[in-house]
Write a structure and sequence with these properties.
The complex is a heterodimer of chains A (about 450) and B (about 300).
Chain A (H helix, E strand, L loop, with lengths): L1 H20 L9 E7 L3 H17 L3 E7 L3 H13 L6 E5 L3 H5 L4 E2 L1 H7 L11 H7 E2 L2 E2 L2 E6 L1 E6 H6 L9 H13 L5 E5 L3 H12 L6 H4 L15 H13 L3 E3 L6 H6 L3 E7 L3 H7 L4 E4 L15 E8 L4 H15 L1 H11 L6 H9 L2 H4 L2 H9 L16 H16 L5 H22 L5
Parallel strand pairs in A: 1-2, 1-3, 9-10, 9-11
Antiparallel strand pairs in A: 3-13, 4-13, 5-6, 7-13, 8-11, 8-12
Chain B lengths: L1 H12 L5 H28 L2 E3 L6 E3 L3 H8 L1 H34 L4 H9 L6 H11 L6 H8 L10 H29 L3 H9 L4 H31 L1 H7 L11 H11 L3 H29 L5
Antiparallel strand pairs in B: 1-2
The chains are: A alpha/beta (about 450), B mainly alpha (about 300).
């Protein structure tokens, strides 16, 4: 709001100054486009820097980045603006909004746009689970931007004190370690539950252990997909988390306190969270921390994890010149150099193999080993139908239903099996509603 | 009797020309039109459609959205939670405000300071108030939660629904007590001191004077406050719930107005959200009508 008003005022002052001077520039005026994003705080500063770099790199176009609040606020703002026929050219939408945007009829495929404008983007070079998540019928629909994957953060001192070199690879062994740490009184809690635990501990758990989350290849093959995670070891995973919480091995930070603080303050020994937490943890923490892959089930061959984060959607209804500007900006974003800069600045993963190679060849991961974990985990093995990603309509809504039922387990009101059965039932009703609305459009 | 005559006189006396009052009313009416009537009618329309949030795919579904709500277990739960929350919040707010008003009415030295302190929470934004309470009672770091744990209470609003409910009620009441307090204090000031002095001469103690003289005279104020508290509990505690519990755990504090927000704003289920707000609106209308029609008649305004 303020930002907008300030911008408007500045523009007004500027243009009236020009008018007074009688020196309105003619054709040299760059094409302006708006990009709405959800990057607040330190990340917001990086976005501003990115845009500044692009604007300085040429004279024809000028991108202005507008912070519109969190992901929910950006998608709502976009919807409102679109309905009022004033949508910005480019919007950053979280990964769960993929289907909502895809079938909204309000966006245009980013691959088409760039191909038509003659930009040579090597689409096959995008990291598989990233491209897989944002593709539809083999075409990239939206420009991947900030992608991350959950990893396991741990307090090195706690593990060493308990006599472990590092966290174990499997859930079974890790559980023993966390209980040992607790019993020896080394830390108050073995782990802290992240706010987006459904992403790291249930969805990625399914992908890594190659478990079906829903039918139809997790929704990739049709809107008539149905959740089936109540028939897999997701149920025992929920039981495990519940047991940890009951035994005080895992803590819930709760409202008014960020879970990350419980980890960085040295209170809790591990933290299952996004690799994007790097920027925060590097800045905040006073502990000797490290990170490793998410655990897997004993006896399983671990698969790739899936991504979270957001991508940039191109909105319909812009002028041709504005699309030129959008295409130029997206092409700039896809460049390995830009990617590498962004990776260094934020902790998000490189989106293309070229960018990844560039980072490696410059020795970046030698000094920042933990930053490579997510990309190694994302590219581990060949993605299966269970690990490519999740294409569910109303995905946020089904996730909220699942979260509700998970809380019923933690509160001791339902058994893990009953709760997951109920979550699947509620989720499927939501999927059917989406199917009804979008029949024949996917 | 005299009061009634004066009131009638006031209504009649001014504004012989209608243009000035209409002009004065216009800004308020414009605000109502743009921020209440137009959105309400749009919500009413939306409630009968299943639509993609961008509005490009729209199906007319009749009363389906309403039918689904009435069958939905989560909606029933939300109604229950709202009723429990509103009643308890109402009781607690009025009771505490009454005690504070009664106590500070009797204080002579430094009354202004007490009043100022009691009124302070009203100046704090609901979100800040919510975060403050969430922090104080956070089981991991909250100082008040540590006190509860020390006396052997297993306090954990992150897991236990009833604890979360207590926390939201506390936060919401704390924020609203000052509102009730200022009205009740004004009400107490209006109690004729001659009556109180006469009772004192007859040997009635302060408590007795309060219950037999002060309280009955406060009834109209209390009735008004009860209505205002219901409105507050139903429509204005969104920010507090959002900051304290986000409707959880497991929907234990998912009051109707928060559910409307989550379903519309986060889940992007506009049809259901619109249907919910329509029901909420009808409910608010009915409640207010009922109260003014039947409850108000029983309130004695006689001195």
């Amino acid at each position: 709001m303020n930002f907008n008003r300030r911008n408007a005022l500045a523009t007004l002052a500027f243009s009236s100054a020009l008018w007074l001077a009688g020196a309105a520039p003619a054709a040299a005026e760059p094409v302006q486009i708006q990009w709405w994003h959800a990057m607040g705080g330190a990340l917001g500063e990086r976005v501003d820097e990115l845009v500044k770099n692009f604007n300085a790199s040429q004279q024809k176009y000028a991108v202005s980045a507008v912070y519109k609040g969190n992901y929910d606020e950006v998608i709502n703002g976009t919807i409102a603006a679109y309905r009022a026929k004033r949508a910005p050219a480019l919007v950053q939408i979280y990964e769960r909004g993929f289907m909502t945007m895809l079938l909204s009829d309000a966006t245009m495929p980013v691959q088409d746009l760039l191909d038509q404008r003659g930009y040579k983007v090597d689409w096959a070079d995008f990291v598989k689970p990233v491209a897989g998540f944002y593709s539809y019928k083999g075409k990239l629909m939206t420009m991947p931007f900030n992608s991350s994957s959950p990893i396991l953060w741990y307090n090195k001192a706690h593990f060493e004190k308990a006599g472990f070199a590092k966290p174990a690879e499997t859930w079974q062994e890790l559980e023993k370690q966390l209980y040992a740490i607790k019993q020896k009184g080394i830390s108050a809690c073995g782990s802290v539950l992240a706010g987006d635990y459904h992403w790291s501990l249930l969805e990625n758990y399914s992908a890594i252990n190659d478990l079906p989350y829903a039918t139809k290849a997790n929704g990739y093959q049709g809107l008539d997909t149905e959740f089936v995670y109540n028939k897999t070891s997701v149920v025992s995973q929920v039981a495990r988390i519940k047991k940890w919480i009951d035994d005080d091995v895992m803590q819930i930070a709760g409202q008014g306190l960020s879970p990350e603080q419980l980890f960085t303050s040295g209170k809790c020994s591990t933290y299952f969270a996004s690799t994007a937490a790097h920027s925060g943890i590097e800045r905040e923490s006073k502990i000797d921390w490290s990170a490793t892959y998410l655990p897997w089930e004993d006896g399983k061959q671990p698969r790739n994890s899936t991504i979270g984060g957001a991508s940039l959607w191109v909105m319909k209804g812009q002028k041709p010149a504005e699309y030129e500007a959008v295409a130029a900006f997206l092409d700039y974003l896809a460049k390995p150099e830009t990617q590498f800069w962004w990776v260094k600045a934020t902790g998000y993963v490189p989106l293309t193999n070229k960018a990844y190679q560039l980072a490696k060849s410059q020795g970046y991961y030698k000094d920042h080993a933990t930053r490579e974990i997510a990309i190694l985990q994302l590219t581990r093995g060949t993605p299966t139908a269970n690990s490519t990603g999740f294409h569910f309509g109303n995905f946020t809504q089904t996730m909220m239903a699942q979260r509700d039922e998970f809380q019923n387990v933690v509160a001791g009101k339902k058994t893990p099996q009953v709760a997951m059965d109920d979550a699947v039932k509620r989720g499927n009703e939501i999927l059917r509603q989406y199917e009804k609305l979008n029949k024949g459009r996917y | 009797m005299a009061a009634a005559a004066i009131e009638a006189g006031l209504k009649r006396a001014h504004f012989k020309d209608v243009r000035l009052p209409v002009l004065l009313l216009l800004p308020q009416l414009a605000i109502l039109l743009f921020f209440f009537f137009i959105p309400s009618f749009r919500a009413l329309g939306q409630a009968f459609f299943l639509s993609d949030p961008f509005g490009n795919t729209v199906h007319f579904v009749g009363f389906d959205n309403f039918a689904q709500l009435l069958q939905s277990a989560t909606y029933h739960e939300s109604v229950q939670v709202t009723v429990v929350f509103t009643l308890l919040q109402n009781l607690l707010t009025i009771a505490v405000a009454l005690v504070l008003a009664f106590a500070s009415d009797r204080v002579i030295r430094g009354r202004g300071i007490y009043k100022a302190i009691i009124l302070l929470p009203y100046a704090i934004a609901p979100v800040i108030a919510g975060i403050l309470w969430a922090f104080l009672f956070n089981p991991a770091v909250g100082p008040l939660a540590q006190v509860l744990h020390a006396i052997g209470l297993a306090w954990d609003p992150n897991r236990v629904g009833s604890d979360a409910m207590i926390l939201v009620i506390l936060a919401a009441s704390w924020k609203h007590v000052c509102y009730d307090y200022i009205f009740l204090l004004a009400g107490l000031l209006a109690v004729p001191s001659s009556l109180l002095e006469a009772a004192a001469v007859d040997g009635a103690g302060p408590l007795r004077r309060f219950f037999t003289i002060g309280l009955p005279l406060l009834m109209p104020t209390m009735f008004f406050l009860a209505v205002m508290n219901f409105v507050y509990g139903f429509f204005e505690i969104f920010a507090i719930v959002d900051a304290v519990t986000q409707g959880g755990p497991a929907g234990a504090t998912n009051v109707l107005v928060f559910k409307v927000y989550v379903d519309g704003f986060i889940n992007l289920d506009l049809g259901s959200s619109a249907a919910q707000s329509v029901i909420l609106m009808i409910f608010a209308l009915l409640m207010t009508l009922l109260q003014f029609r039947y409850v108000e008649r029983r309130v004695s305004y006689d001195v």
